[in-house]
Amino acid sequence: MAESKHLTQENIMQTNLIHEALLQADLSQAGGLKKKDGSTSQHRAFYHAVSKQRWMVYQKREYLYWLQQKDELSLRQNFVQHMYVPLLQKHLSTLAVAADKLQILEFGCGPVCTAQYVDQGKKTYVDPLMDDYRRLFPATLPEKSTYLALMAEEVDLPEDNYDMVLCLNVLSDVHNPELVLNHVADYLSHDGVFMVSMDLWPTWLAKLHVFCAHFLPSLPGLNRLYSYTRQGFVHSLSRHFELTAAYKLKTGLRSLSLRQEWMFVCQRKQKGD
Questions:
Q1: Residue 78's domain spans which residues?
Q2: Where residue 77 sits, what CATH number does that domain have?
């Protein structure tokens, strides 16, 4: 994350046209769009449902990480301000909602709470470890916000209420990603924007992550609850939303990595889609 100080909004935006073209190709292969011959390819997301016990073990590991690595918070804050916030501002500007009426919901916010770096709107933060984060970082979390220390799958919020919903590199860590996506589709307003980022992997490496998570749980670097390929993740999103844009976020030396973080911009599907 230290390389984020070299990243600029221009680095992100200049690749937008290329990645929107890639997004359209992914949708065609993932079943979101029809091919020229009228057929569709059913490339499915690669993951297995995890047990509640495994999810709880992962949450404990997440808590211990932040307990032992408090200095990492400033690095992560710097990263999200350089990589996420310019995109959030860009798509917030497209919403026809008064600043004092704007509602932003962030799932899996951790101790960073990315939405706090957006000036406008009322913020709601949802994270099962929120009470722990508020004890660990009492001076850094934003004031005048709503905090819910709940699983994303269990939260009960007003439907059709939020103008922007965020899931920033968190869906690989929730108990049931498909259920979370279903909730997001309910909570998002009719003209709202869902912005979701995810580390995506080549197929063979995604399978390796699943293997290690099951049989080598002591390896935290290769122990994710869920690991997606780009086509698989696009397919999961396209079953719930209309995808409108995509951005490849990590540049510089990270461009040589097999792991690539992507940001997808989504809207609710129209009735009949």
A1: 2-268
A2: 3.40.50.150
Q: Which residue has the higher pLDDT, 264 or 257?
A: 264
Compute the average pLDDT of residues 37-66: 69
Cβ-count burial of 45 within 10 angstroms (0-12 exposed, 13-18 middle, 19+ buried)?
buried
Higher pLDDT, 41 or 264: 264
In a domain, 162, yes or no: yes
Query: 59 with 270: CB under 8 angstroms?
Result: no
Give me the helices (H) in the chain, please: 9-13, 16-30, 52-68, 72-83, 85-92, 130-136, 177-187, 203-215, 230-238
Residues with Cβ < 8 Å from 19, sequence gap 6 or more?
Answer: 245, 246, 247, 248, 262
User: In this structure, are residues 29 and 41 in contact, taking their beta carbons and an 8 Å threshold?
Assistant: yes
- Tokens standing for residue 159: 């439907």
- The CA distance from 53 to 201, in Å, is 25
The predicted model gives 196-218 an average pLDDT of 75
Q: How far apart are CA 227 and CA 208, in angstroms?
A: 9
How many distinct structural domains can be found in the chain?
A: 1
Asked if residue 105 belongs to a domain, the reply is yes
Which two structure tokens, joined as six digits, stand for 88? Answer: 């959030």
161: amino acid identity, one letter: N
Q: Please give the DSSP secondary-structure letter assigned to residue 4.
A: G
What is the pLDDT of the chain when averaged over all its residues?
Answer: 80
Block residue for tokens 């059913």: 42
- Is the pLDDT score of 6 beyond 90? no
- Which backbone phi and psi does 104 adopt, to 5 degrees? -120, 130
Two tokens, residue 213: 């998570």
Which own/partner contact pairs does 146-154 have at CB distance under 8 Å and 24+ positions apart?
A: 146/122, 148/124, 150/126, 151/175, 152/107, 152/108, 152/126, 152/180, 152/183, 153/179, 153/180, 153/183
In this prediction, residue 143 carries a pLDDT of: 85
